[in-house]
Amino acid sequence: MPKILFISAHAPTNLYPQAGQKIALSNLNKYHVDNTRVDIVVIANKVEINAATDLFGNYKKNHQNNLFTYPLDKSDKIISCLTNLSIPFKFSTRYQKAVTQKLQELLAKNTYDVIHFEYSHAAVYLDLIKPLINSNHTRTIISIHDVVSQFFLRKSQNNFLLGIEVARLFKFEKKIYSNVDELWVLSTKDRNILTSLFAIPENKIVIKPPQVSEFIYKIKRDIEKIENKSLLFWAAMNRPENEQAAINFIQKCFKNLLKIDPEYKLYIVGSNPSAKIIKFASENIIVTGFIENPTQFFEKAQIGIVPLLQGAGIKLKTLEMLQAGLPVISTSIGAEGIETSKNIFVNDNFEDWVNIITNLAKSN
């Protein structure tokens, strides 16, 4: 019977409102086949693990698999960072003593065919694991959701301390990526970053584009249903980069649109909007919070927007709006990794967005 050890830095689930957790569950499910044993170790925020009832339903009750969860709160992360100062902070938050003990126990009892790290920071345990496995038998894989150095490099433009951390991250990432057998990435662009930035051989990189949510395939955009001059921003609003994107768009573009035509509407659809976002709610700016089935917004919105100024890697929100048939206006960061599409309009100047939106509103 093949044996898999799956270590994830976030909870693999479809029930948490961020794209990465859905990708993680999809990757985990690839191993969930007959006559295969999967031992799963999840080190994630408590709120994610509490939400992941689908993960527990699929794996906890199956005697063939073992699921071990390690919920984290802010104090756990701070303590881990302070006690592992040689490790970059993004990675050290997941380095927990209880997890090291569990991994040593599992590796003493089992010879795994594959050890899979979901998210780069799950591979903080690579140095612990390497001496305990037979490299001729066990294949090691990291599924990379974002190139962490790239993400922090963009945030460090005006922050000297973050610049120092970027240097530590680069060294750490290069080491872990060079010392596994296979790397999974979400786009050609991510593969090119690994080959150019870290000198990773192309033949050890596998491109696995993310799957869009199931509801996307059921969307039927009827011209009679589409609300003219309506915009959709579809994102998990508890992420700082999404919150800031919405605020920038409202202040630098949407207010100017309303001066031209007060009939424009913006739908901000996604879980946990902050007080900063909620204060913008009005007749023209609809802030929905969590929506279990957002189909109606994908069917009635005339234009999708992705005004991101931070982040790294391919954006599932962009893919999903394109797949649903919306024309999408995006910054270059929001369009990162997206293959050429006649339906995406990429521009980093929000003053230009006013003209792009008004032209699209007339032509669609």
Summarize the structure.
The protein is α/β, with parallel strands linked by helices and 364 residues long.
Question: Your description of this structure?
Answer:
It contains 15 helices and 13 strands. The protein is of the alpha/beta class. It has 2 domains: 205 residues, Glycogen Phosphorylase B (Rossmann fold); 150 residues, Glycogen Phosphorylase B (Rossmann fold). The strands form 2 sheets. The protein has a 7-stranded parallel beta sheet with strand order 3-2-1-4-5-6-7, sandwiched between helices. The protein has a 6-stranded parallel beta sheet with strand order 10-9-8-11-12-13, with helices on both faces. Helix 8 runs antiparallel to helix 9 and helix 11 packs across helix 15. The mean pLDDT is 90.
What topology does this entry show?
Blueprint: E1 3-8, H1 19-29, E2 37-45, H2 46-51, H3 53-60, E3 66-72, H4 74-83, H5 89-92, H6 97-109, E4 114-118, H7 126-129, E5 139-143, H8 148-155, H9 160-178, E6 182-185, H10 188-197, E7 205-207, E8 227-234, H11 240-260, E9 265-269, H12 275-278, E10 285-289, H13 295-300, E11 301-306, H14 316-324, E12 328-330, E13 344-346, H15 350-363
Parallel strand pairs: 1-2, 1-4, 2-3, 4-5, 5-6, 6-7, 8-9, 8-11, 9-10, 11-12, 12-13
Helix pairs in contact: 8-9, 11-15
